[in-house]
Specification:
- It contains five helices and eleven strands.
- It is of the alpha+beta class.
- The strands form two sheets. A six-stranded antiparallel β-sheet has the order 2-3-4-1-5-6.
- One of its GO terms (biological process) is iron-sulfur cluster assembly.
Length: 240
Amino acid sequence: MSLLAFSSYALNGVDAQKFLQGQVTVDTERLAENETRYTAICDLKGRIHFGLWLKKINPESFEIVVTQDQAEEFAKHIKKYGAFSKMTLSEQGAVFPKVVNHQTEFTTAETDISEWQKQAIMTGQAWITQATEHEFQPQELRLHQREGVNYDKGCYLGQEIVARLWFKAKPKHWLHLVQGTGEAPASATQLNNDVEVVNSIANDEGYLALVVAKPTALQELGIQVLELPEALSGDVARPQ
């Protein structure tokens, strides 16, 4: 049985879109309505603090899902930064994930979360939990390849560092799918100095995991690297 759980929130009010535009890495103004997108709220160092599935109902109404272990801190964050915005954050309760066309959607009907974890990992849908907050930059998780980052949008938390890495540098570590042996390592486990586990789940051969790693470090470990979907393949540098 999976210990992973999810909490849903509704953000409603005339300032909802404007507020989120200054928080998340995705461009909320360009976000299509009724489409769930995984995005992030970063800290001032450009690392992901909260990972969230965001659905825009209209510019004044958004549905937001976070992992349950981040929910309380997330709600405090929104209420702190949104204290002077005309909007209301309300908890909607537990929801359950399912993969639809390589994307995650949520329902109030109970689903097999372990099966979702397996499918999400195999399709490169890394997710942040309390164990991995402040660990990874969006680019390292291939979030831009999932359309969860817009590098041309205006200011948001951590934007300066996130944009600088994209336009002027290149990450040394990025997301890979691996098949390992033995017990599944916990999120945030360092398999060595240059390989860190984001998500993992046990399977018949040992475990599947999404790791942020240097490619050379994976070779040194001798761990089997599997292919991700084409949209998430290759390195993560800005195309020249």
